[in-house]
Amino acid sequence: MIRNITEDELNEQQLFSEKVRQHYSECKPESPPLAYIRTYGCQQNVSDSEHMKGMLAEMGFGFTEQPEEADFILFNTCAIREHACDRVFGNVGALKSLKARRPDVLIAVCGCMVQQEHVAAKLKESYSFVGLVFGTHVIHRLPELLLGALQQRKQMTVIPVEDGVIAEGIPVRRDGDFKAWLPIMYGCNNFCTYCIVPYVRGRERSRDPEIILQEAKDLVAAGYKEITLLGQNVNSYGRGATHGVDFAELLRRINAIEGDFTIRFMTSHPKDATPALFDTIAECKKVSRHFHLPVQSGNDRILKEMNRHYTREQYLSLVAYARHVIPEISFTSDIIVGFPGETREEFEDTLSIVKEVGFTSLFTFIYSPRRGTPAAQMPDPVPLEEKTAWLKELTALQEGISGERLARLVGTKQRALIEAQGDGYLEARLPENSVVRVPGDPSLIGRHAIVKINDARSWIMHGEICSVE
Ligand code: SAH
Ligand code: SF4
Ligand code: F3S
132-134 and 179-183: which strand pairing? Predict the structure, then answer.
């Protein structure tokens, strides 16, 4: 069952929060305690960490980028591929000597990885210096968990197995001041056969549209220029709810908020992206003309084995429709290379769909077996070296396509958001999601500008600012 966390439950957390504050003011009266948070994985995790930072700030914590000076160290983990998990174990393991030197430091591991039983068991057996381990469904209970762990000597583990919760009204301390993540839903029901997310994030559940709308209004009022709506499958927003607001309607309502801002969203599942959604986007001028639409494979048998519920033709016709109603739209995608049993011919279908669509860029992954998923049981005869060679072939193909796309932008003027500072330049992001390096003063970060693109060399564009809005 999916549960809404009640106000009483949240008020109870306030009391725990106060007790944590007291604890530190007694045992460390000279300065506020410091927290170090390291986040792995997707934007949903980044957003969760922002909420945990909000709770920690309420508990009186300051923040540090140095684990050595932290009183509380938190790893918010990702389980999507083996590599992500290995990195976490390596990095957590490296803290053992720190804990030996400073026994008062509390080390915690949370997130998708620990929601897997075997990971929690490994942390218990071999990482006893970790004081707190908690799953994805109890993030809102951080004050209670932290207090509990401070009061006991052995590892505290809280990983309830449930469908999931929706907790509203948790404080948030956002990392950026002009780009914001706004979760609209949690969990996933799709059970793509390779994917661990439905097992570690629970069932799909959507937040109330009024609450989302208010949060979006507050962000715009606070000067945010870009709001990214988050969900594993945003196109199925509101499914099963009684309020009747679907994703297209939610976009319409956010688009109607007064102000100068862009709406982005991720991720869209092709099976639920409809022509009607693209019609809506065509109408809504604040919605970004960039669409991340993971295709995973260009071969129908593999798509079926993946349980993706669309065919190559359906994907292509969706892209064609989108381009018909929004000519300037650009697409990026995710691709898995070497799904169990994929043959060379089937992989070539992926190469050909990549050519046919002409993505702006791709996120490419070698298939990584995840324990407990159906694909992990499938015969997987292709050796890793061969899959690695396929991946290289795919990335080389995409580099060529991206290079051609960038070359076509040379000489044009584009509206861009100045996002960050590099070594002697600013980074301006175009609506289609590529970055142009421009000279300029860092005070311009967070502003929109018209930039002229002067050249595109080695996959990097250079340009200049024509005017700032
Ligand atoms: N909900 C999103 C994706 C979330 S995971 C969607 O459906 O598109 C992000 C990407 O990681 C996926 O799109 C997929 O390409 C990749 N991925 C997921 N599980 C994987 C696995 N077991 N091995 C390799 N890549 C994987
Ligand atoms: Fe994983 Fe598929 Fe859900 Fe995306 S839609 S999170 S790939 S199960
Ligand atoms: Fe990773 Fe969990 Fe996101 S598994 S990709 S952090 S939902």
Answer: unpaired
Ligand 2 pocket list (CB less than 6 A): 188, 190-192, 195, 197-198, 232-233, 269
Is omega for the bond preceding 360 within 30 degrees of 0, making it cis?
Answer: no
Identify which ligand lies nearest to the alpha carbon of 363. Answer: 1
381-394 per-position pLDDT tens digit: 999 999 999 999 99
Q: Which atom of ligand 2 is nearest to the CA of 296?
A: 7
- Tell whether the model's pLDDT for residue 457 goes beyond 90: no
Ligand nearest, relative to CA of residue 364: 1
Q: Which CATH architecture has domain 3-165?
A: 3-Layer(aba) Sandwich (3.40)
What's the CATH fold of domain 413-468? OB fold (Dihydrolipoamide Acetyltransferase, E2P) (2.40.50)
pTM beyond 0.90 = yes
CA of 88 to the centre of ligand 3 (A): 13
Residues 87-117: tens digit of each pLDDT: 999 999 999 999 999 999 999 999 999 999 9
Instruction: Say how many Å lie between the CA of residue 368 and the centre of ligand 1.
Output: 10
Atom of ligand 1 nearest to the CA of 334: 15
Q: Which CATH superfamily is domain 168-405 in?
A: tm_1862 like domain (3.80.30.20)
**Residue nearest (by alpha carbon) to ligand 1 atom 15:** 334
User: Which of 46-55, 233-242, 314-323 is predicted with the least confidence, judged by mean pLDDT?
Assistant: 233-242
223's tokens:
């000067």
Domain with CATH 2.40.50.140 in the chain: 413-468
Of 188, 76, 62, nearest in space to 134 by CA: 76
Ligand 1 neighbour 201 (Cβ under 6 A): no
The Cα 116–Cα 109 span in angstroms is 12
Domain with CATH 3.80.30.20 in the chain: 168-405
Residue-wise over 252-289: b if at least 16 C-beta within 10 A, else e? bbbbebeeebbbbbbbbbbbbbeeebbebbbebebbbb
Q: Considering the chain, what percentage of its residues have pLDDT values greater than 90?
A: 92
| Atom 2, ligand 2: residue with shortest CA distance | 192
- Domain span(s) for CATH 3.40.50.12160 in the chain: 3-165
